[in-house]
Structures are given as C-alpha cells and as structure tokens.
Amino acid sequence: MNGIELRFKYLKAHPMPYESDTPVSGIQILLNLNETYWPILLTLVMIFILTYLYTGSYRNGKDITMVLPIGRIQSILTNASIGWICGIVILLGMSLLIFACASLFFGTGNIAYPYIIHQVVNGKFALGIVPVSQIVPNALILQIFAILFIALFTQLIAKIFRNQLPSLLLTILLLIGGSLITIVIQPLNAIAQWLPSTYLNPLKTVSGTLAYELENVQVNFGNGMLTVIISSCFLIVLLILVDYIQTKNESKR
After folding, report:
1. Alpha-carbon span 145 to 115, nearest angstrom
2. Which of 1, 57, 82, 198, by CA, is between 20 and 30 Å from 232?
3. Cα angle 42, 47, 234; round to 5
4. In the chain, what is the straight-line distance between the N-terminal and C-terminal CA atoms, in Å?
5. Structure pTM?
6. Residue 144 buriedness (CB in 10 A; 0-12 / 13-18 / 19+)
7. Separation of CA 159 from chain center
8. Which element (helix H / strand E) includes 124?
9. How far apart are CA 220 and CA 243, in angstroms?
10. 93-146: per-residue pLDDT in tens?
C-alpha cells in the first residue's frame, strides 16, 4: 500500500500517459518476469546450451581439442568468451522476443514509469520510487557479469566430468539450488552477499528487494559486482589448474 501511494505521488508530480499496474506492456512484462521466475528459466536455458557446448569437445572422456595448435590457457579463455557471448545472445534473444510480443498488443511502455524499490535509510529498509530508466542499466550490467560466472562454472564442471548428463545435473543443482537455498536456509542470509549464486536475479538485487527478503543490507549492486568478478577470476584459475592436472595425467598414460 505504501509503495502504491508513493507511485501515485510520483505520477502526480511527473504526469505521463496512463499505464496499467498489471504488467502487460513490453517494458512492464520484462521487469515483472525478471523479478519472478525469469532468472531461473534463463539460467536453466543457459546451462543446457552451455553444457552441450562444453561437453561436445570430449569423446570417450578425452579432450579432442588437445590436438589443436593453441595454448591451453588461450583455449580456456576462448571457450569462456564463447560461452559468455552465447549467454548474452540468449539473454537478448529471449528478452527481445518477449518484449516484441507484448509491445505488439499492449505497447512498449514508458521508461520513465515509476518503479518501487527498497532502500536503506538510517540502517532500516524503506520504500522508494525511481524511474525504470534509472534501475535497468545497473541490473543489465550485473546480469552480463553473472552470465560470465555461469559460463565459467559450467565450463569447469564439464571439464571435470567430461560427460554431458552428470555435468548438466550437477551444474543445475549447484547454481539453481544455490540461489534458492540462500532464501530457505536462514543462516546463509548473513553471508549471502559473498555467494555468487545470490546474484542470479540482478533486478531484485539492484532494486533492494532481495536485500529486504534476506534481511541483509550488504546484498547490493556494488557487492554483487565485486563477488561475481572475484568468483569468475577464481574459476579461471581453477580451470587452468584442472586442465594442467588432466593434461599431465594424460601425458603420463
């Protein structure tokens, strides 16, 4: 009720064409989907495609790319870049498709329309209002780096197991399960800001909704970017280490 009242006050001070509070326009429906089940669905689609991509280079447990005249570190970084780009293409493709379908029937919507956020005032959560155009850029930036983490994590699991089915199941369990278990298990709320799986929902992170749900003011855009980037660098080191160990063992055989 307080959020709706703030929205009406904002609209009185910033008059604009009427928009239904029910998410039907292109922008509104994208925001609503990104708040709800869209992050899980998008992550699942990425995991399926990237797992197929990364396990495709293995035949009977052997890495057929080892015969290519390319350095192993360069190969890892190239595969990571391909996975990252592939994830971004999936994000943009699915988003544009839904946006186009909704806009065709209900219009595109207004980027100046007010969006309800949770902000910290004097150490306590309080409702606030910002235009959609103010919150989307940070959410998109965090989403892009979260995709990099997903690509690297999927690549690491695929490199360890070298088989599509176990790689797929374990990646889903750790990424999707990790993002859901943080909300379910209360003790994890206190360290949620340092768990990269927390930031699979960038819009709720940037809007402060996730911090409000977890009762953890440290879950925000700044800590999200720091956590995802550090975790991605750590995964790159692990990939190089695992590749070195596997290459050494295969050379001995």
Report:
1. 23
2. 57
3. 110
4. 68
5. 0.91
6. middle
7. 22
8. strand 124-131
9. 34
10. 999 999 999 999 888 888 888 888 998 887 788 899 999 999 999 999 999 999
